[in-house]
Give the backbone structure.
Amino acid sequence: MKKAQRILLKISGEALKKNDHPLATELLDLLVEHTRYCQRESIQLAIVIGGGNFWRGAQNAMIDRSTSDSVGMLATVMNGLVITRYLESHGIEASVWGAFEIVSLVPAFSKVDVLKDLAQGKVTVLVGGTGSPYFTTDSCAVLRALELECDLVLKATKVKGIYDQDPTKHPEARLLKRLSFKEAEHQKLGVMDQTAFTLASEHRMPMAVFSFYQPDIWPSILNQTDGDYSLVS
């Protein structure tokens, strides 16, 4: 695979949460570091952010699933607005686009306009998920990556990559560094939710899974060299 020139970074809301802080400054600073690496390498960067630091829609039994998912979409908007302004406060040009328009806050996603922003060196933050309930931000990430003709999806998580079993429960779990879509599916590794994974597999959209907390991993991923991350292609 050639070196990626345009990538989509998927970050879970939980990755930006620490203790009682839904958006911890030190974790936002890590995102700034990730972003600056892309700028130095002239890599166009789009970001899809989850909302789990504020609301876990699929796991909330208080209201019906459809309404709960809609609240989750709004949570991603809150994250996206903060991230965009935080990047700008550090001298990084950024724009935010939503699956739906929020007047005076977030314009509706437009492939043409987002590509223009990316070409101008702006980081584009994509919020609101797909705009429909029952779809996760994983699905949104793959969908937007395909629409924007990205070379690679990067999924930033709390662990170093994809393991043969849950590393939080099994200390002996083995990091799987390179595997095919068929291998990941056969082993039921849960790289992403099934809808997102199937979409990526059908369109051969490669994805790398890595720890959000190791900002120095980007050169290894983008140059396809050895490191603590997993590549599915």
Summary: The beta strands are 6-11, 44-49, 94-98, 123-127, 152-157, 162-163, 175-176, 178-179, 207-211, 230-232. The chain has a mean pLDDT of 89. The domain at 6-232 is CATH 3.40.1160.10 (Carbamate kinase).
